[in-house]
Amino acid sequence: MVKTTTESVQCQRCGRKLRTPKAMELGYGRVCHSKYKAEKAKEEMDRNQMRLELDGVN
Ligand SMILES: [Zn+2]
Fold first, then answer.
1. How many domains is the chain built from?
2. Is the pTM of this model over 0.70?
């Protein structure tokens, strides 16, 4: 029997159950979200850097 509950939201990073409304809203636990944000920021930085390098070529 498969029970589908929308109430148990899992962290999209580590798969743990999220307990706070804030975490559920984010889809990540507090720690995972800060890591996620850091990764996004780094990704963005890398992308900007790549764009700068490409601009330099042109
Ligand atoms: Zn997590």
1. 1
2. no
